[in-house]
Specification:
about 120 residues, mainly beta, six-stranded mixed sheet, about 45% strand
């Protein structure tokens, strides 16, 4: 099983990013796919999930800024983030399952929101 994230970078407040995750070694179509993030000094934080039927689920703090999607044909899932704020700065990981421990995870992609 291997997960690889991409799409992170340095972005100004108010900007947008689209993160991607490509999985190999298992068929993603039957799993709930998830994004989590970890800011320096903090625990892993759940960001978004999408179940096998394509139904998304987000924590309340997302407030409509995050959109998760999946492409089973490509064994991939995505996270579109709008209206980025400095508090979104973190390493973003893709994983399977709605709940912890969210393992295995990929190496992560750094998102830095700063002017």
């Amino acid at each position: 099983v291997k997960l690889v994230e991409s799409g992170g970078g340095l972005v100004q407040p108010g900007g947008s990013l689209r993160l991607s995750c490509v999985a190999s070694g298992f068929p993603t179509r039957q799993y709930t796919l998830t994004w989590v993030r970890q800011a320096p000094g903090n625990d892993l934080e759940w960001v978004a999930s999408i179940d096998s039927a394509g139904t998304p689920n987000y924590p309340n703090y997302v407030q409509g800024r995050f959109t998760i999607s999946r492409d089973n044909a490509k064994n991939s899932w995505y996270l579109q983030i709008h209206s980025l704020v400095p508090e979104d700065t973190a390493v973003y990981y893709c994983a399977t399952g709605r709940f912890p421990p969210w393992t295995p995870r990929g190496p992560g992609t750094q998102v830095t929101v700063s002017s």
